[in-house]
Design a protein that fits this description.
Shape: elongated
Largest sheet: 8 strands, mixed
Structural class: alpha/beta
Number of strands: 24
CATH class of the largest domain: Alpha Beta
Helix content: 10-25%
Number of domains: 3
Strand order of the largest sheet: 10-7-11-13-14-15-18-19
Distance between the termini: 64 Å
C-alpha cells in the first residue's frame, strides 16, 4: 500500500487500534499524529495498516459530515466566511518566524520556522470570522537572529500596511526577543491603529500548543480600540484568557510556561476572555485614531547592555569605550549600583559623550542613586537614572535616541523623558 503524508490511517498492533494522520517518515517506519495531538511510530512490517482517508478525501466511510477520525470536516473557505455584505476590519499579519510559525522537521526532530502568514490562517480558520486578513512575510527566522536592522524593516512594513488601509497589524514573532522588538516599534512608530505582537511557547505540532488561542486573542485586540504597540500572550497556564501588555513594559519571565510574559512595574493594558472574546482594560490607553501615523526610523546598533556582578573588572567598560560603542546601559544591583571601581570608567564614558543609563537587576521597582554614596558618585560621574525602565527597554531606547540625534545634550534629555510609556511616574507593586 502506497501512503502519502496527510493520509488518515488505522493501525492495528497486538490487539490495539490506533488512528492518525500520516507524518513524514522512512520507508521502514510509519509515523502518525493521533487525535490526542501526540505522535506514534511503528515498524511497517509489524502492523496492519488500513487507509481510511486519502489526504483530504474520505475513502472508507465518514459519517454525517465527519471524517473517519471523528472530527467534523472543515468548511470550505467560502462557507467559513461571514455572510456576504458583512464588512470586516482589515488586518495585516506580518510574519517574522518564531515558534508560532514553526513546526517539527521530522528529518531532524528539531523545531524549524516553516510557516507563512497564510499557513497561520489555514491552521486557525476561526480568524476568518474576526477580520479580513492579508499576509506578508518579513522574515523567517528564530527571534535570537533579530537585530536593529530587521526592526527597522519591520517597522517600515507596519507603516506601509497602515498607510494602505489596514485597521490593525498582527506581528508573529519568536518569544525569546519579542520584548526587544515591541520596544523598538513603540519608539519608532506612533500608530492610529493597534499593532499587536504575538507568539507561542510551543509549536503547533504539540498538543499543548498555545498558538491558536494567542492568535485569536491577538486578532481581537487588532480590531479593538487599543491603538498601541502591545504583546498578547497567555495570561495563565490554562486556556482561559490572554493578557495585553504595553510594548515597553513587558518581559518574558519563564523559559517554557505558556504564561511566560508579564507586565513589569505596570499593570497589563487589559485581558482578552478566550471564551467570550470580550476585552476588559485595566489602565488608560491610547485609543484608535487618537494619534496620527508617524514614523521615526533610525537605530544605532553600537550600544551595549552590561550586567554588573561582584568583582567584575572595570576594564569591561573600557573595552566598550575603546571599541567605538556609542551608548551603554548598566544593569546594576538593587537601587542601581555598581562597584566604586567602575565610577572612573563611567566618567570616562560620559566625558567621551557616551551616555550611560543605569537600571536594576531586580526588574521590579525603580532605582534611586541618591540613597547611598556610591549612587551619588555615579550621578556625579554623569550616569543617568533609568527610573523604573526595564534593562532591555533601556537598551532599545538608547539605540533609538542615538539614531535620532548626535547632539549629546538632546540625547540626555530624551533618555530622561518618558517617550512611549517606558517610564512611569509611580511604580506599581
Amino acid at each position: 500500500m502506497e501512503l502519502k503524508q496527510g493520509d488518515w490511517v488505522r493501525i492495528e498492533k497486538d490487539g490495539t487500534v490506533y488512528e492518525g494522520r500520516v507524518m513524514p517518515s522512512t520507508e521502514e517506519r510509519i509515523i502518525i499524529k493521533m487525535n490526542s495531538g501526540y505522535n506514534a511510530g511503528f515498524s511497517v512490517d509489524k502492523v496492519k495498516i488500513t487507509l481510511l482517508e486519502k489526504n483530504g478525501g474520505i475513502t472508507n466511510g465518514g459519517r454525517n459530515g465527519e471524517s473517519q477520525n471523528g472530527w467534523k470536516e472543515d468548511k470550505t473557505a467560502e462557507e467559513g466566511l461571514p455572510e456576504s455584505g458583512k464588512k470586516l476590519p482589515k488586518v495585516t499579519i506580518l510574519s517574522t518566524g518564531g515558534t508560532i510559525a514553526s513546526k517539527i522537521d521530522y528529518r531532524t526532530g528539531a523545531v524549524t520556522s516553516q510557516f507563512t502568514a497564510d499557513d497561520v490562517l489555514a491552521a486557525i480558520p476561526e480568524l476568518k470570522e474576526i477580520a479580513e486578513f492579508k499576509g506578508r512575510v518579513i522574515s523567517s527566522t528564530l527571534s535570537e537572529n533579530m537585530d536593529p536592522e530587521t526592526w527597522q524593516i519591520l517597522a517600515r512594513a507596519v507603516v506601509e500596511e497602515i498607510e494602505a488601509g489596514a485597521n490593525g497589524i498582527i506581528i508573529t514573532h519568536g518569544t525569546d526577543t519579542m520584548m526587544y522588538t515591541a520596544a523598538a516599534l513603540s519608539f519608532m512608530i506612533e500608530t492610529p491603529v493597534p499593532v499587536v505582537l504575538v507568539g507561542s511557547q510551543r509549536s503547533a505540532d504539540r498538543p499543548s500548543s498555545d498558538n491558536a488561542m494567542n492568535m485569536i486573542c491577538a486578532a481581537l485586540v487588532a480590531i479593538s480600540d487599543i491603538a498601541e504597540v502591545s504583546v498578547v500572550m497567555h495570561g495563565s497556564t490554562s486556556d482561559d484568557f490572554c493578557e495585553i501588555h504595553r510594548g515597553t513594559k513587558v518581559r518574558k519571565m519563564h523559559t517554557s510556561r505558556r504564561d511566560a510574559f508579564r507586565s513589569i512595574n505596570f499593570l497589563p493594558i487589559g485581558v482578552v476572555d478566550y471564551d467570550t472574546g470580550e476585552i476588559k482594560t485595566s489602565i488608560d490607553y491610547i485609543r484608535r485614531g487618537e494619534k496620527s501615523l508617524k514614523f521615526k526610523p533610525g537605530m544605532e546598533p553600537k550600544c551595549a547592555l552590561i550586567k554588573f556582578t561582584p568583582g567584575a573588572d572595570s576594564d569591561i567598560l573600557d573595552y566598550y569605550i575603546n571599541s567605538g560603542y556609542r551608548g551603554l546601559v548598566l544593569e546594576g544591583t538593587g537601587l542601581g549600583h555598581v562597584s566604586t571601581k567602575w565610577i572612573p570608567m563611567i566618567r570616562k564614558a560620559t566625558d567621551a559623550k557616551i551616555p550611560v543609563i543605569v537600571t536594576s537587576q531586580c526588574l521590579n521597582g525603580r532605582i534611586c542613586d541618591l540613597v547611598y554614596d556610591t549612587g551619588r558618585d555615579m550621578l556625579k560621574a554623569g550616569a543617568i537614572e533609568g527610573e523604573d525602565i526595564l534593562p532591555e527597554t533601556a537598551l532599545v531606547k538608547l539605540m533609538w535616541v542615538l539614531g535620532q540625534t548626535d547632539n549629546f545634550g538632546e540625547v540626555i534629555e530624551m533618555l530622561r523623558e518618558d517617550l512611549s510609556g517606558e517610564i512611569t511616574e509611580r511604580t506599581l507593586k
